[in-house]
């Protein structure tokens, strides 16, 4: 996930131009003690911030760069101050949320078990909102997704309404929504078992919906050949893979496109691979007591390093072959496979 450090200065001044200034003119992550007034900020576990049994007052513009769960807690946003939650907001067990400034949730919002909301300022959710018990809502609320059980008395709208009624706030939210949620650690493409194997790994995924695997013959015109589900929100290293089976031999180009739940996407670097439909896998290599060949063939010859024939078969093996090699000497061997597709030569070792 891309962090907010490099864009905080830009976001701060863009927000100041939108809504006067923040009370303390502070900006930063939730774990900075200057941005809240309580004895403990909360317990952070992975991508979840859990706050229970305390009162929290937001000072300045503060980013909770994770999901936020409050339990039996009063969360108060002071006038002219801002809380940005880069994930979902869940209120439970007699919690109380009072927004006197600006509350922006880049995800879903849900409240449960006598949790109430008082919105005196501006509220924006880019996800769905449900289960709310609104104590009062003289402020403005904008929900990009669906509403359930929400009956505000102030201005109510969706994404389009926010864009038309308050373009500065809309652009401010969009500047955060378009921050893409995945850090790519590695990306490799290779051939195996007559297929192209696409492998990649990620870290710190945030709202990651899925990956699209794209293929091209000229690195210009691309087609989607498959999709792999993402892992939503995680701070763990995740390994992904996808097998492609092009019809013809030749040079191919591959790239990965990541798509988040809001529909935003980014494409990663391009990898080149030479693919041969006549490819064959001989394993294990090096081998010990047996040798397997996964290629159908008409004729098979294995030579030792002196050129002497160690094994030969002129039978048609449509599903490959396994050879016992207990009595073979250690060293280099040359495998020659002849089929209707041509001749393949491989080196193997014992």
UniProtKB/TrEMBL annotation:
- Which UniProt keywords are listed? Signal
First and last residue of the signal peptide: 1-19
Which Pfam family is an annotated match for this chain, by its short name?
Por_Secre_tail
InterPro entries named in the record: Ig-like_fold, Secre_tail
Domain (Secretion system C-terminal sorting): residue spans on this chain: 282-348
Q: What is the protein's name according to its record?
A: Secretion system C-terminal sorting domain-containing protein
């Amino acid at each position: 996930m891309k962090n907010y450090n490099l864009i905080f200065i830009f976001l701060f001044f863009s927000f100041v131009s939108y809504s006067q200034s923040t009370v303390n003119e502070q900006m930063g992550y939730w774990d900075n003690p200057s941005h809240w007034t309580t004895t403990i900020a909360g317990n952070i576990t992975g991508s979840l911030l859990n706050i229970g049994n305390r009162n929290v007052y937001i000072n300045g513009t503060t980013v909770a760069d994770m999901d936020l769960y409050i339990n039996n807690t009063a969360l108060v946003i002071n006038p002219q101050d801002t809380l940005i939650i880069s994930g979902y907001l869940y209120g439970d067990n007699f919690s109380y949320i009072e927004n006197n400034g600006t509350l922006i949730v880049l995800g879903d919002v849900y409240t449960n078990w006598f949790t109430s909301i008082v919105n005196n300022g501006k509220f924006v959710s880019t996800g769905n909102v449900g289960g709310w018990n609104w104590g009062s809502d003289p402020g403005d609320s904008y929900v990009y997704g669906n509403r359930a059980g929400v009956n505000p008395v102030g201005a109510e709208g969706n994404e389009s309404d926010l864009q038309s009624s308050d373009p500065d706030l809309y652009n401010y939210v969009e500047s955060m929504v378009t921050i893409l949620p995945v850090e790519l650690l590695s990306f490799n493409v290779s051939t195996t078992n007559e297929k192209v194997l696409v492998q990649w790994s990620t870290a710190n995924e945030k709202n990651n919906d899925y990956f699209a695997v794209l293929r091209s013959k000229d690195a210009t015109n691309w087609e989607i050949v498959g999709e792999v589900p993402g892992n939503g929100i995680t701070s763990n290293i995740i390994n992904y893979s996808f097998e492609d089976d092009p019809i013809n031999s030749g040079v191919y180009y591959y790239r990965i496109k990541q798509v988040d739940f809001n529909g935003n996407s980014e494409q990663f670097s391009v990898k080149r691979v030479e693919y041969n439909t006549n490819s064959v896998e001989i394993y294990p290599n090096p081998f010990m007591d047996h040798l397997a060949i996964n290629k159908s063939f008409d004729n098979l010859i294995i030579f030792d390093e002196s050129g002497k024939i160690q094994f030969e078969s002129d039978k048609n093996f449509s599903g490959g072959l396994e050879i016992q090699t207990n009595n073979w000497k250690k060293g280099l061997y040359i495998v020659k496979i002849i089929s209707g597709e041509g001749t393949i030569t491989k080196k193997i070792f014992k």
